[in-house]
Specification:
- This protein has about 120 residues and is mainly alpha-helical.
- Helices cover about 80% and strands about 0% of the residues.
Length: about 120
């Protein structure tokens, strides 16, 4: 019985050292993933914001229409064809925005997984 207890004591010591080392490496890896996912999300969000159409263009066109109505009266021709519409985007812009949003979603998912891993 003494040999058996020495074996289990030795096993517990070795397994605890291995587990502690594994958990320390996994915790460090999760911290690195969390840092890079946060940085990537910030940079990706910046690109997404820059790809959006400028709302000032639509505002300026609407202001010109209002000025025209005030100057020429309510029967002035209202040509709103120059307003930008949501269907006026080229397919390459739609694909780029789709990929940017997909990358942002996966980055947030990776950060969520890292937080869950660190708290587990």
């Amino acid at each position: 019985k003494d040999v058996e207890s020495k074996f289990w004591a030795s096993y517990k010591k070795v397994s605890n050292e291995y587990d502690d080392d594994f958990l320390e490496r996994a915790n460090d890896d999760m911290a690195i993933i969390l840092t890079f996912a946060g940085l990537f999300s910030a940079v990706n969000s910046t690109f997404i914001v820059k790809m959006q159409p400028n709302p000032a263009d639509t505002t300026n066109i609407l202001m010109l229409q209002l000025i025209k109505i005030v100057a020429e009266g309510p029967n002035a021709a209202n040509d709103i064809g120059s307003l930008s519409s949501s269907t006026g985007y080229s397919s390459s812009i739609v694909w780029m925005q789709t990929l940017a949003y997909a990358c942002l979603a996966f980055s947030v998912l990776a950060a969520f997984g890292a937080v869950m891993g660190k708290q587990w």
